[in-house]
Protein backbone atom coordinates (compact mmCIF):
# COMPACT_ATOMS: atom_id res chain seq x y z
CA UNK A 1 0.00 0.00 0.00
CA UNK A 2 1.51 3.30 -1.10
CA UNK A 3 2.13 5.98 1.51
CA UNK A 4 2.81 9.69 1.69
CA UNK A 5 6.13 10.27 3.45
CA UNK A 6 7.45 13.61 4.72
CA UNK A 7 11.14 14.26 5.47
CA UNK A 8 12.40 17.33 7.33
CA UNK A 9 15.67 18.45 5.74
CA UNK A 10 18.46 19.14 8.21
CA UNK A 11 20.58 22.06 6.98
CA UNK A 12 23.90 23.28 8.35
CA UNK A 13 25.76 26.29 6.92
CA UNK A 14 23.52 26.27 3.87
CA UNK A 15 24.21 22.62 3.02
CA UNK A 16 22.14 19.48 3.48
CA UNK A 17 23.43 17.13 6.14
CA UNK A 18 23.98 13.54 4.98
CA UNK A 19 21.32 12.23 7.35
CA UNK A 20 18.70 14.03 5.23
CA UNK A 21 19.71 11.95 2.20
CA UNK A 22 19.64 8.82 4.36
CA UNK A 23 16.15 9.73 5.56
CA UNK A 24 15.06 10.15 1.94
CA UNK A 25 16.34 6.64 1.21
CA UNK A 26 14.26 5.30 4.10
CA UNK A 27 11.28 7.30 2.87
CA UNK A 28 11.59 5.88 -0.65
CA UNK A 29 11.68 2.36 0.76
CA UNK A 30 8.52 2.71 2.86
CA UNK A 31 6.56 4.84 0.38
CA UNK A 32 6.04 1.76 -1.84
CA UNK A 33 5.32 3.90 -4.87
CA UNK A 34 3.73 6.73 -2.93
CA UNK A 35 4.88 10.34 -2.80
CA UNK A 36 8.05 11.33 -0.93
CA UNK A 37 7.96 14.97 0.13
CA UNK A 38 10.91 16.86 1.59
CA UNK A 39 10.52 20.16 3.37
CA UNK A 40 13.41 22.57 3.75
CA UNK A 41 13.50 25.80 5.76
CA UNK A 42 15.44 29.04 5.35
CA UNK A 43 16.04 31.82 2.84
CA UNK A 44 18.35 29.62 0.70
CA UNK A 45 15.95 26.67 0.60
CA UNK A 46 15.54 26.90 -3.19
CA UNK A 47 19.25 26.14 -3.65
CA UNK A 48 18.76 22.69 -2.11
CA UNK A 49 15.83 21.48 -4.23
CA UNK A 50 18.00 19.84 -6.89
CA UNK A 51 19.97 17.70 -4.44
CA UNK A 52 16.80 16.65 -2.63
CA UNK A 53 15.14 15.59 -5.88
CA UNK A 54 18.24 13.69 -7.06
CA UNK A 55 18.17 11.64 -3.85
CA UNK A 56 14.53 10.63 -3.83
CA UNK A 57 12.20 13.57 -3.18
CA UNK A 58 9.17 13.71 -5.49
CA UNK A 59 7.97 16.99 -4.01
CA UNK A 60 9.72 19.74 -2.06
CA UNK A 61 7.90 22.16 0.19
CA UNK A 62 9.91 25.36 0.61
CA UNK A 63 9.55 27.58 3.65
CA UNK A 64 11.78 30.57 2.93
CA UNK A 65 11.12 32.76 5.96
CA UNK A 66 14.51 34.24 7.06
CA UNK A 67 13.46 33.61 10.68
CA UNK A 68 14.21 29.93 9.92
CA UNK A 69 17.78 30.43 8.70
CA UNK A 70 19.06 29.36 12.12
CA UNK A 71 17.32 26.69 14.15
CA UNK A 72 15.21 27.81 17.08
CA UNK A 73 12.74 25.53 18.81
CA UNK A 74 9.67 27.76 18.59
CA UNK A 75 10.08 28.85 14.96
CA UNK A 76 10.82 25.36 13.63
CA UNK A 77 8.00 23.88 15.67
CA UNK A 78 5.46 26.32 14.24
CA UNK A 79 6.72 25.92 10.66
CA UNK A 80 7.01 22.12 10.76
CA UNK A 81 3.55 21.74 12.27
CA UNK A 82 2.02 23.79 9.45
CA UNK A 83 3.88 21.76 6.82
CA UNK A 84 2.58 18.51 8.34
CA UNK A 85 -0.96 19.87 8.32
CA UNK A 86 -0.51 20.86 4.66
CA UNK A 87 1.04 17.59 3.43
CA UNK A 88 -1.01 15.21 5.64
CA UNK A 89 1.63 12.46 5.53
CA UNK A 90 1.31 8.86 6.64
CA UNK A 91 4.98 8.77 7.71
CA UNK A 92 7.31 11.50 9.04
CA UNK A 93 11.10 11.20 9.21
CA UNK A 94 13.70 13.52 10.70
CA UNK A 95 17.37 12.96 11.38
CA UNK A 96 18.36 11.99 14.92
CA UNK A 97 20.41 15.17 15.20
CA UNK A 98 20.26 18.12 17.57
CA UNK A 99 17.44 19.56 15.44
CA UNK A 100 15.48 16.31 15.09
CA UNK A 101 15.88 15.36 18.75
CA UNK A 102 14.54 18.74 19.84
CA UNK A 103 11.66 19.42 17.47
CA UNK A 104 10.30 15.89 16.95
CA UNK A 105 9.07 15.24 20.53
CA UNK A 106 7.36 18.63 20.57
CA UNK A 107 5.56 17.93 17.32
CA UNK A 108 4.63 14.41 18.40
CA UNK A 109 3.24 15.62 21.72
CA UNK A 110 1.24 18.45 20.15
CA UNK A 111 -0.27 16.24 17.43
CA UNK A 112 -0.80 13.23 19.71
CA UNK A 113 1.58 10.99 17.79
CA UNK A 114 3.91 8.24 18.93
CA UNK A 115 7.61 8.72 18.21
CA UNK A 116 10.26 6.06 17.52
CA UNK A 117 13.60 7.75 18.10
CA UNK A 118 17.20 6.92 17.18
CA UNK A 119 16.37 4.29 14.56
CA UNK A 120 19.31 2.34 13.17
CA UNK A 121 17.39 0.01 10.87
CA UNK A 122 14.15 -0.25 8.94
CA UNK A 123 12.40 -3.16 7.26
CA UNK A 124 8.98 -3.95 5.85
CA UNK A 125 7.27 -6.97 7.39
CA UNK A 126 3.85 -7.93 6.05
CA UNK A 127 3.33 -4.38 4.88
CA UNK A 128 4.27 -2.86 8.25
CA UNK A 129 7.30 -0.72 8.98
CA UNK A 130 9.51 -2.30 11.64
CA UNK A 131 12.22 -0.09 13.13
CA UNK A 132 15.33 -1.22 14.99
CA UNK A 133 16.66 1.01 17.77
CA UNK A 134 19.23 0.57 20.57
CA UNK A 135 18.35 0.37 24.24
CA UNK A 136 20.37 0.14 27.48
CA UNK A 137 23.14 2.37 26.10
CA UNK A 138 23.53 0.21 22.99
CA UNK A 139 23.82 -3.12 24.80
CA UNK A 140 20.64 -4.44 23.18
CA UNK A 141 18.31 -3.65 20.31
CA UNK A 142 14.53 -3.70 20.01
CA UNK A 143 12.22 -3.78 17.02
CA UNK A 144 9.20 -1.50 17.06
CA UNK A 145 6.23 -1.00 14.79
CA UNK A 146 3.32 1.43 14.87
CA UNK A 147 0.01 -0.42 14.88
CA UNK A 148 -2.08 2.43 13.52
CA UNK A 149 -1.96 6.13 12.74
CA UNK A 150 0.90 8.29 11.54
CA UNK A 151 4.39 6.79 11.82
CA UNK A 152 6.94 9.28 13.21
CA UNK A 153 10.63 8.37 13.54
CA UNK A 154 14.09 9.89 13.83
CA UNK A 155 16.93 8.26 11.87
CA UNK A 156 20.43 7.89 13.36
CA UNK A 157 23.12 9.14 10.93
CA UNK A 158 25.34 6.63 9.08
CA UNK A 159 22.99 3.65 9.41
CA UNK A 160 20.71 3.71 6.35
CA UNK A 161 22.66 4.17 3.08
CA UNK A 162 21.63 7.14 0.94
CA UNK A 163 20.46 6.47 -2.60
CA UNK A 164 22.81 7.09 -5.49
CA UNK A 165 22.11 10.51 -6.99
CA UNK A 166 19.81 10.31 -10.03
CA UNK A 167 20.35 13.54 -11.95
CA UNK A 168 17.41 12.78 -14.25
CA UNK A 169 14.95 13.31 -11.39
CA UNK A 170 13.22 16.62 -10.76
CA UNK A 171 10.83 17.38 -7.93
CA UNK A 172 7.63 19.39 -7.93
CA UNK A 173 8.24 22.42 -5.73
CA UNK A 174 5.79 24.42 -3.69
CA UNK A 175 6.47 27.47 -1.55
CA UNK A 176 4.47 27.54 1.66
CA UNK A 177 3.90 30.84 3.40
CA UNK A 178 3.82 29.75 7.02
CA UNK A 179 2.42 32.03 9.69
CA UNK A 180 4.95 32.40 12.47
CA UNK A 181 3.66 33.96 15.67
CA UNK A 182 6.80 36.03 16.03
CA UNK A 183 5.68 37.60 19.30
CA UNK A 184 5.78 34.12 20.82
CA UNK A 185 9.30 33.29 19.60
CA UNK A 186 11.32 33.20 22.79
CA UNK A 187 14.73 32.88 21.15
CA UNK A 188 16.51 35.12 18.67
CA UNK A 189 19.81 33.97 17.15
CA UNK A 190 22.11 36.94 16.56
CA UNK A 191 25.36 35.12 15.90
CA UNK A 192 26.78 31.60 15.87
CA UNK A 193 30.26 31.06 17.28
CA UNK A 194 31.71 27.62 16.65
CA UNK A 195 34.25 26.17 19.06
CA UNK A 196 35.35 23.39 16.75
CA UNK A 197 37.33 23.96 13.59
CA UNK A 198 35.90 23.56 10.13
CA UNK A 199 35.92 20.01 8.83
CA UNK A 200 33.91 16.80 8.73
CA UNK A 201 30.91 16.75 11.06
CA UNK A 202 31.70 14.29 13.86
CA UNK A 203 28.24 12.72 14.04
CA UNK A 204 28.21 12.02 10.28
CA UNK A 205 31.88 11.21 9.68
CA UNK A 206 32.70 7.91 7.95
CA UNK A 207 36.03 7.80 9.77
CA UNK A 208 36.55 8.89 13.38
CA UNK A 209 39.92 9.10 15.14
CA UNK A 210 39.27 9.40 18.89
CA UNK A 211 41.67 10.18 21.70
CA UNK A 212 41.45 9.47 25.42
CA UNK A 213 43.54 10.30 28.46
CA UNK A 214 46.40 8.45 26.79
CA UNK A 215 47.02 11.43 24.48
CA UNK A 216 48.39 13.16 27.65
CA UNK A 217 47.85 16.76 26.49
CA UNK A 218 46.16 19.03 23.96
CA UNK A 219 49.25 18.67 21.75
CA UNK A 220 48.75 14.91 21.91
CA UNK A 221 45.76 15.31 19.59
CA UNK A 222 47.95 16.63 16.75
CA UNK A 223 48.95 13.17 15.43
CA UNK A 224 45.27 12.17 15.54
CA UNK A 225 44.28 15.29 13.62
CA UNK A 226 46.88 14.51 10.96
CA UNK A 227 45.60 10.94 10.56
CA UNK A 228 42.01 12.19 10.38
CA UNK A 229 43.02 14.69 7.69
CA UNK A 230 44.65 11.95 5.59
CA UNK A 231 41.57 9.72 5.86
CA UNK A 232 39.03 12.52 5.42
CA UNK A 233 37.65 11.86 8.89
CA UNK A 234 36.86 13.68 12.11
CA UNK A 235 38.54 13.77 15.51
CA UNK A 236 36.63 12.79 18.64
CA UNK A 237 37.45 12.25 22.29
CA UNK A 238 36.51 10.34 25.40
CA UNK A 239 35.05 12.14 28.38
CA UNK A 240 38.32 11.60 30.22
CA UNK A 241 40.20 13.64 27.60
CA UNK A 242 37.58 16.39 27.76
CA UNK A 243 37.60 16.46 31.57
CA UNK A 244 41.38 16.78 31.48
CA UNK A 245 40.92 19.83 29.21
CA UNK A 246 42.87 18.28 26.36
CA UNK A 247 40.04 19.24 23.99
CA UNK A 248 36.62 20.83 23.85
CA UNK A 249 33.53 18.96 25.06
CA UNK A 250 32.09 19.37 21.55
CA UNK A 251 34.30 16.40 20.60
CA UNK A 252 33.04 14.11 23.36
CA UNK A 253 31.78 10.70 22.27
CA UNK A 254 29.79 8.57 24.69
CA UNK A 255 26.61 8.20 26.68
CA UNK A 256 26.68 11.87 27.67
CA UNK A 257 28.25 13.04 24.41
CA UNK A 258 27.75 12.29 20.73
CA UNK A 259 26.79 8.86 19.41
CA UNK A 260 28.71 7.94 16.28
CA UNK A 261 28.49 4.99 13.88
CA UNK A 262 31.31 5.48 11.35
CA UNK A 263 32.67 2.89 8.94
CA UNK A 264 36.01 3.08 10.77
CA UNK A 265 36.63 4.08 14.40
CA UNK A 266 40.20 4.28 15.66
CA UNK A 267 40.44 4.60 19.44
CA UNK A 268 43.78 5.99 20.59
CA UNK A 269 44.70 5.83 24.25
CA UNK A 270 41.10 5.12 25.29
CA UNK A 271 40.59 2.61 28.09
CA UNK A 272 37.01 1.72 27.09
CA UNK A 273 34.75 2.88 29.91
CA UNK A 274 31.19 1.66 29.42
CA UNK A 275 29.96 5.24 28.98
CA UNK A 276 32.32 5.71 26.04
CA UNK A 277 31.42 2.36 24.48
CA UNK A 278 27.77 3.44 24.47
CA UNK A 279 28.67 6.16 21.99
CA UNK A 280 30.77 4.18 19.51
CA UNK A 281 30.32 0.41 19.90
CA UNK A 282 28.06 0.23 16.82
CA UNK A 283 30.84 1.45 14.53
CA UNK A 284 31.31 -0.93 11.61
CA UNK A 285 35.05 -1.50 12.16
CA UNK A 286 36.79 -0.61 15.43
CA UNK A 287 40.57 -0.38 15.79
CA UNK A 288 41.98 0.08 19.31
CA UNK A 289 45.49 1.38 20.09
CA UNK A 290 46.53 1.13 23.73
CA UNK A 291 49.65 0.27 25.74
CA UNK A 292 47.59 -1.80 28.20
CA UNK A 293 46.74 -5.22 26.71
CA UNK A 294 44.00 -5.61 29.32
CA UNK A 295 42.21 -2.36 28.38
CA UNK A 296 38.45 -2.85 28.05
CA UNK A 297 38.43 -1.17 24.63
CA UNK A 298 39.90 -4.36 23.15
CA UNK A 299 36.70 -6.22 24.11
CA UNK A 300 34.76 -4.38 21.39
CA UNK A 301 37.59 -3.89 18.90
CA UNK A 302 37.78 -5.75 15.60
CA UNK A 303 41.53 -5.07 15.50
CA UNK A 304 43.80 -4.28 18.44
CA UNK A 305 47.27 -2.78 18.49
CA UNK A 306 49.15 -2.98 21.78
CA UNK A 307 51.62 -0.12 21.67
CA UNK A 308 52.36 3.55 22.23
CA UNK A 309 49.90 5.66 20.23
CA UNK A 310 52.62 8.27 19.62
CA UNK A 311 54.56 5.62 17.70
CA UNK A 312 51.66 3.74 16.13
CA UNK A 313 49.53 6.65 14.87
CA UNK A 314 52.32 8.36 12.85
CA UNK A 315 53.19 4.98 11.32
CA UNK A 316 49.57 4.45 10.31
CA UNK A 317 49.44 7.96 8.87
CA UNK A 318 52.49 7.34 6.67
CA UNK A 319 51.18 3.96 5.48
CA UNK A 320 47.77 5.42 4.62
CA UNK A 321 49.46 8.23 2.70
CA UNK A 322 51.37 5.67 0.62
CA UNK A 323 48.24 3.64 -0.10
CA UNK A 324 46.21 6.70 -1.05
CA UNK A 325 48.97 7.99 -3.35
CA UNK A 326 49.24 4.60 -5.08
CA UNK A 327 45.48 4.52 -5.65
What is the SS-derived class?
alpha/beta
Radius of gyration: 21 Å
Total discrete domains: 2
Proportion of beta-strand residues: 15-25%
In the CATH hierarchy, what is the superfamily of the largest domain? HUPs
User: Which of globular, elongated, flat, extended, rod-shaped describes the shape?
Assistant: globular
Q: In the CATH scheme, what's the topology name of the largest domain?
A: Rossmann fold
| Topology as a string of helices (H) and strands (E) | EEEHEHEHEHEEEEEEEHEHEHEEH
Protein name: Electron transfer flavoprotein alpha subunit apoprotein
Cofactor: FAD
Pfam families: ETF (PF01012), ETF_alpha (PF00766)
GO molecular function, one term: flavin adenine dinucleotide binding
Short description:
The protein has 327 residues and is an alpha/beta fold.
Chain-wise SSE layout:
Elements: E1 5-8, E2 11-12, E3 15-16, H1 18-31, E4 36-41, H2 49-54, E5 59-63, H3 73-87, E6 91-95, H4 98-111, E7 116-119, E8 121-125, E9 128-135, E10 140-144, E11 151-155, E12 172-175, E13 207-211, H5 222-231, E14 234-237, H6 239-243, E15 264-268, H7 274-280, E16 285-290, E17 303-306, H8 309-326
Give an overview in words.
With 327 residues, the protein is α/β, with parallel strands linked by helices. It folds into two domains: 5-184, Rossmann fold, CATH 3.40.50.620; 202-326, Rossmann fold (3-Layer(aba) Sandwich). It contains eight helices and 17 strands. It has a seven-stranded parallel sheet with strand order 7-11-6-1-4-5-12, with helices on both faces. Strands 14-13-15-16-17 form a five-stranded parallel sheet. A three-stranded antiparallel sheet has the order 8-9-10, with no helix packed on it. Helix 5 (222-231) packs parallel to helix 8. It is globular and about 60 Å long.
